[in-house]
Amino acid sequence: MLVSHQQNSILKHESLLVKFLTKYLSRVDSDIYFAKSSRCVTHSFTKTATVLSMANDGTLDALPVVGLAHNDDKKIPRKRVYAWAFWDWATQPFNTVLITFVWVPSFLTSTFFLDPDVVGTAGEEVALGQLAANLGAGITIAGLLIAFLAPVLGQQADRTQRQKLQLMIFTGLLVLTQLGLSFVQPGQEWFWVGVGLIAIGSVFNEIAGVNYNALLVSVSNSKTVGKVSGLGWGFGYLGGIIALATVVGLILSGVLQGDSALTFQLVALGCTIWTVFFVIPIFVSVPEPKTRQVGEKLGLWGSYVELGRSVKRLYKEARPTFWFLLASAVYRDGLSAVFVFGAVIAGIVFGFGFTDLVIFGIALNVVAGISTIIAGRLDDRFGPKNVILVAVFGLVACTTAVFVLVDLGTPMFWAVGLILAAFVGPAQAASRSFLARVTPAGREGEVFGLYATTGRAAGWMASLLWAVFIQLAGNQAIYGLLGIALVLLVGGVMLLFVKAPARSPR
């Protein structure tokens, strides 16, 4: 994907993006990055509970910002913020190019990996379906590994104050996984190698993401966490767009051949180079969070015992955080399903081909990226809970609209799809911001590990209801949208009852 003569183009994209974001943030320089705290924030669960119980003015209706308070009286260099955000940019092609739009759907689950005697026969469709099912099994196993490993690894990173080191290790493992994909050959004997690499890459990516999220407290403060979180998501979307557009451009121009296995091997190699190139800034410029030491390193079993105690303490002493983890697990499953099954709806119901789908995906990511960056300002002004609620209920309205207006055809799907994309990114970024605001200092990795775990634990709901509604409707795929809408609705209603974190005075 990224041959040598493409490097200058990438650097130009990076420069233009930084200039745009610099202009965007310049109006609020002193307010955003050089803000000082106007109130004192407690640094422990117990003291936080005491502050809340003593508040008598009605303004502290939830946990205040805690770990973030370490930066309220410090200058945060803009370079550090951009360096942090570029990790999202660097790793996004694994999801956008390799999993969602190019390598998996057009290579791994294609006729490249079927018995040649089956290709072109009546059994081809069934055989392709079996490939997709086997891929799903591999991803399910990866999800279980993430659910078991993410919280304890995050907890251990907190105890040793090594979140940046863990981020480096698991990002490096992700790079090696992507490199491995470039060696996968067509043929049945290579299929499970490809599935295994995609699955283990998902594990490495998710665990690295836990530590990346925990480093949010190193690049933001109680007044800017929403903007910075949104910036990271925006960088991710825009990076995915440019990577995907590069692949599509090379294929459409004839430089790469869409029906050649070599093309997909080069795409995987290009994604590897992309990640290596753009992860450098975060490891050079972003420090470990400066928080208190929470304890000695535990073994694996001891970590699970401590995890159980942590969940119990979380319920008793930081209940808004506990309930937010549950509510967000539900609506985040709906968010994931929107993109995963939206592509299925586009192909089956509205007749999108490969090129149509990729162009549609680029458009969705452009809208999502821009809206996410803009929504970061709304997050800090109105609070992350309000941003999430508007986004989630907006998604409910959009998915329902596609179902009701299906007879209007492709123009309607394009219009509603773009509106829908404008809600997805803000919901994701504001969720990370919400959690950062209610996470106690020194426990960022543990809580964000629980965030990953609860999301995986609820990851079956939308897909199950998708299948159930389709079955009840006589295998009409459009009815699956009602299942997704229901999951989003339940998650949104649950969030209504979660107390919002107190916002810092502007």
Automatic annotation (TrEMBL):
Main subcellular location of this protein, as a coarse class: membrane
Membrane protein topology class: Multi-pass membrane protein
Boundaries of every Major facilitator superfamily (MFS) profile domain copy: 322-506
Keywords of this entry: Membrane, Transmembrane, Transmembrane helix, Transport
Transport keyword on record: yes
Compartments, record wording: Endomembrane system
Transmembrane region(s): 81-104, 131-153, 165-184, 190-214, 235-256, 262-284, 322-351, 357-375, 387-406, 412-435, 447-472, 478-498
GO molecular function annotation: transmembrane transporter activity
Matches recorded under Pfam families: ATG22
Coiled coil regions in record: none
Keyword hit for Zinc-finger: no
A GO cellular component entry from the record: endomembrane system
Entry-linked InterPro entries: Atg22-like, ATG22/LtaA_families, MFS_dom, MFS_trans_sf
Protein's name according to its UniProt entry: Unannotated protein
Species in which this protein is naturally found: freshwater metagenome
